């Protein structure tokens, strides 16, 4: 089995992996890298796009799905497989992050999408692909690819200790690509959620909480202790996520439905509210927060960022200028979670995706099988 590192290794963004066995070639995720120059914005394909038999997406966030139109423009004609939730959310991701020319030439191919449920096992050519819930977003999955002699696990984005979402146990494998987004950060999601709630409570006149529409929005809703507002465009999508009860921890759907029913709708023409205001996306590159971040900053309205801030993104620039605060809301594994994932998978050889090289090194002191030298563009054989 050959593993091609198309993106996300030694860097954050454009997560994408190729898997080849016999005559079958798969591509797992097709992300973009926010803020990168054109050559580094899209995956670095190591095989011609027309030779890839299937693309499988773990979820619809831009660093995993934003290059779909580009891949089609490159000549990809294979199968496209994803969950129903990913199919629903990917068009908005492409609208915000796809190259305009690629999107115009190759819009989201809804009629070509093959839907699977988390937990299903898929068969493509010589390969059998197990799937499981990721704990990251509703409809998010991990992939375990088996060709009969070797098994490779692509975690995608996972959260083993989320209080909102459920993550299924990964199987043992020969090689695992860990979600190393946070390097060796040891601070738990529970601690960070408390810190966010305290920050919000200290600002009773209101604040802005930019957040991805899927995943972290529900984590923030669960963390907030008091009333809050949401951008009105988010309500339907949040309700759909909450209705997907099998992705949520026991009792969480009822709790989140109650929170959503109490949330105030807010639209662009209104004054900034005297409440915490959730608006997507998380870095201010797209969606309502692209308009709200500069408005809030100009008005001195407090801003709390809680996720990845790519260099040059609106959120990163405001934070660097001291005009926005940042507290990470863990929606990826912290150190104990990744160690447990690796040990549960049989302590296999490991890669770390979505992490710059310097931050990967401390993680390697806790996971001795972690390869620190792997980079986008490499090909490995297992």
UniProtKB/TrEMBL annotation:
SMART domains assigned to the protein according to its UniProt record, in alphabetical order: Lactamase_B
Name this polypeptide is given: MBL fold metallo-hydrolase
Keyword 4Fe-4S recorded: no
Gene Ontology molecular function, alphabetical: hydrolase activity; RNA endonuclease activity
Superkingdom per UniProt: Bacteria
InterPro entries: MBL, Metallo-B-lactamas, RibonucZ/Hydroxyglut_hydro
Gene3D superfamilies: Ribonuclease Z/Hydroxyacylglutathione hydrolase-like
UniProt keyword terms in alphabetical order: Hydrolase
Native source organism of the sequence: Neoaquamicrobium microcysteis
Entry keyword Magnesium: no
Domain Metallo-beta-lactamase per the UniProt entry, residue ranges: 13-199
Pfam families membership: Lactamase_B (PF00753)
Taxonomy of the source species: Bacteria, Pseudomonadati, Pseudomonadota, Alphaproteobacteria, Hyphomicrobiales
């Amino acid at each position: 089995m050959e593993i091609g590192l198309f993106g996300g290794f030694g860097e954050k963004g454009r997560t994408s992996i190729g898997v080849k066995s016999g005559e079958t070639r798969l591509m797992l995720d097709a992300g973009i890298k926010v803020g990168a120059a054109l050559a580094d914005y899209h995956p670095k394909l190591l095989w011609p796009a027309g030779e890839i038999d299937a693309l499988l997406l773990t979820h619809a966030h831009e660093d995993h799905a934003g290059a779909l139109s580009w891949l089609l423009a490159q000549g990809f004609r294979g199968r496209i497989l994803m969950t129903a939730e990913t199919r629903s959310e990917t068009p908005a991701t492409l609208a915000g992050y796809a190259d305009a020319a690629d999107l115009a030439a190759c819009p989201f191919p809804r009629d070509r999408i093959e839907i699977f449920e988390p937990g299903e096992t898929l068969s493509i050519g010589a390969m059998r692909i197990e799937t499981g819930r990721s704990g990251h977003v509703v409809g998010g999955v991990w992939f375990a690819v088996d060709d009969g002699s070797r098994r490779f696990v692509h975690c995608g984005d996972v959260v083993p200790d989320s209080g909102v979402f459920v993550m299924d146990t990964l199987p043992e494998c020969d090689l695992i690509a860990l979600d190393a987004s946070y390097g060796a950060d040891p601070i738990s999601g529970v601690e960070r959620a408390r810190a966010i709630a305290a920050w919000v409570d200290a600002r009773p006149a209101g604040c802005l909480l930019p957040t991805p529409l899927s995943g972290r929005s529900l984590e923030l809703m669960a963390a907030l202790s008091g009333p809050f507002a949401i951008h009105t465009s988010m309500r339907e999508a949040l309700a759909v996520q909450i209705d997907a009860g099998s992705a949520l921890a026991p009792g969480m759907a009822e709790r989140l439905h109650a929170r959503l029913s109490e949330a105030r709708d807010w639209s662009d023409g209104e004054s900034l509210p005297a409440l915490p205001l959730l608006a997507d996306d998380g870095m201010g590159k797209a969606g309502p927060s692209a308009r709200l971040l500069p408005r809030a900053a100009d008005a001195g309205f407090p801003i709390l960022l809680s996720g990845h801030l790519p260099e040059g993104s609106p959120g990163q620039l405001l934070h660097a200028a001291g005009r926005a605060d940042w507290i990470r809301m863990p929606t990826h594994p912290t150190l104990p979670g990744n160690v447990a994932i690796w040990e549960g998978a049989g302590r296999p050889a490991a890669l770390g995706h979505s992490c710059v090289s310097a931050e990967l090194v401390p993680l390697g002191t806790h996971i001795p099988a972690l390869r620190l030298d792997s980079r986008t563009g490499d090909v490995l054989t297992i």
